[in-house]
Amino acid sequence: METKRNTKQKQIILTLLKEADKPMSINEIYTQVVSQLPKIAKSTIYRNIDSLLQQNLIDKYHLNDSEVFYRIKENSMEHKHFVICNECKKMFDLPLCPIHEIEHAMEQEGFIVEEHQIQISGICKNCAKNK
Amino acid sequence: METKRNTKQKQIILTLLKEADKPMSINEIYTQVVSQLPKIAKSTIYRNIDSLLQQNLIDKYHLNDSEVFYRIKENSMEHKHFVICNECKKMFDLPLCPIHEIEHAMEQEGFIVEEHQIQISGICKNCAKNK
DNA sequence: CTTGGTGCAAAGTCTTTGCAAATCA
DNA sequence: TGATTTGCAAAGACTTTGCACCAAG
Known about the structure:
Two copies of one chain form a homodimer. With about 130 residues, chain A is an alpha+beta fold. Chain A has two domains: about 1-75, Arc Repressor Mutant, subunit A, CATH 1.10.10.10; about 80-130, Dna Ligase, domain 1 (2-Layer Sandwich), CATH 3.30.1490.190. Helices cover about 40% and strands about 25% of the residues of chain A. Chain A has helices spanning about 10-20, 25-35, 40-55, 100-110, 125-130, and strands at about 25, 60, 70, 80-85, 90-95, 110-125. A three-stranded antiparallel β-sheet of chain A has the order 1-3-2. In chain A, helix 1 crosses helix 3 (about 40-55). Chains A and B meet through helix 4 and strand 6 of A and helix 4 and strand 5 of B. Strand 6 of chain A pairs antiparallel with strand 5 (about 110-125) of chain B, so a sheet runs across the interface. The first copy, chain A, binds a DNA duplex (25 and 25 nucleotides) through helix 1 and helix 3.
């Protein structure tokens, strides 16, 4: 089994994702990290993100139809989904997760659910107001 | 307002998606269409898919973490989601949609839901059996 | 006819990979 | 020290665009 080293680059990325606690794109991550580590390569971001995905420390999301986001995993007790505003692109927590009941129904039919994601988009309160 | 022509290429793509009635990737679409129209360019597929999305005749999905799929829209009465098997990559219909109740809750908080998608993946009955 | 669509090739994006040098353990 | 990770540059994969020609309305 391969060993995962704890490099400065990886620590910074992980800390960033922890403190953001919201989904971030590769570019957002890169821009932030560059300010602390000016010489970091984008490929290092990609490689560390892959590594963190393998280590199950982060999740991957498609929150709108073209961008990929990554977010720190919760204490496994907290289960979170997100909603994105099509106007301001801000993300909001989804207050509840309606999948579990469905999972139950599906597992009775023999399908083993491993992962699920929900994507909801629309217009947030604030943007709706300013229209 | 721009006019949308009904070209042979577009008709073939639309018919293909209608008959498949499951999400297809650009490559799947291309491979199928080429057998009927050997000279078609992949860019024509992309452009027609964009056009069909604009016309609201098809939907775009990310059903696994890297591929994009397109599927014909239902008679607007039928509202469908899909489940994908991580083993055989087959897709199955999701029997019900649990989003509407959430939408309601969200709209009471001022968020206007425009779109939603659900992605569930796991192991289907058949693949689980063969393990 | 007139305008939008097509095929082709080239250009853009985003992501991955090869490699020598650097760094962690 | 020994092996993984880094930065850089180059290669890949996927998607978009420019343009001359074609075809739908």
